[in-house]
Amino acid sequence: MSDYITKEVLVIYTGGTIGMTENEEGVLTPSNEFIERIKNTPDLHDESLAREYFNENMEDNIFVTRSNGTVIIYRINEYKPLLDSSNMSLEEWKRIANDIGENYEKYDGFVVLQGTDTLTYTASNLSFMFENLDKTVIVTGAQIPIFEKRNDAKDNFLMSLVYAAVYQIPEVCVYFGNELFRGNRTIKFSNTLLKAFKSHNYNLLGEVNIDVHLYEEYLLKPMTLNKFKVNSNINANVDIFKFHPLVTPDKLESCLKSNIDGVVLITYGAGNIPTNEKIIQILKDAVESGIIIVNVSECPHGTVNPTYEAGKICKDIGILPGFDITTEAALTKLIYVLGFKNLSLDEKKTMMMTNLRGEITKP
């Protein structure tokens, strides 16, 4: 085996469809049988190769596979309890981030397995919590459990391992349906397609066809030699408010008068809001009280800009343009920025409009 390069990957398995089985009522629920299934999936675990490396001293949660000239040894850290992604919260994000932080020097790359519904929130949040990242972190899941004969779970997991082990990508990515995305640029747009994720405002980072491709020209370029660290000083006292034709001033006021520190405001088109005087005054009062409000378009493609009077009003009263940021990235960036207690309000606002992890394209 001397001709092979050996890489080690830590896999954090939080739950999700990828490892679910049907219960007695015929619905999918988290299962603890995932590791056993990996042992019996030759593409994901080569038993004879594992014996060459570990003899009889192999632990139950360590697996070995091979991709071209690289042997990938990976350990699965299975969380208890396993969660449907609908139950993922800030505590799970912190746990994932801290587990990667504690093992950062031990492994060449990292894969996070979770459910698809909140997968892009996790990827976006990790991208901000990880400062000075210079290793590959891939977040993935599946639309069909690995226990089904026809599934997307095996390929999503296997290629996430390959990207995490073989390539040095200094950012948090999402791999799904043969495509590699920047994590904080990704949204889930379908619950029926195997290509369930898209990055409408940024290029693919890679894709898998007959060959494995990595488009290095679109990767983040590390700008610092500082040591990697996890910043978990997060202020989660934020909310999302979406404009729609039935919004009233009272509904908006009830959101903004709940002693929150930040709001992601989902608006129409290029960042437009109703020009109702009461609504404008409520937003203006909120900004003047110190609440950071970020304007994000409901359109998955495009950017916020003051093309129309209904959008220019937002800028005029101090609402921050989110440019082409996703809702998930805006929310997780906001809780990250608000966590800097040593920064002034103006500094936090400047930080919100600064491209920190490749999450926005400023005009």
TrEMBL record:
The active site is at residue 17. PANTHER family: 60 KDA LYSOPHOSPHOLIPASE (PTHR11707:SF28), L-ASPARAGINASE (PTHR11707). Its EC number is 3.5.1.1. Pfam families: Asparaginase, Asparaginase_C. Residues 9-217 form the L-asparaginase N-terminal domain. This is asparaginase. SMART domains: Asparaginase (SM00870). Residues 237-352 form the Asparaginase/glutaminase C-terminal domain. SUPFAM superfamilies: Glutaminase/Asparaginase. It comes from the Eukaryota. PROSITE patterns: ASN_GLN_ASE_1, ASN_GLN_ASE_3.
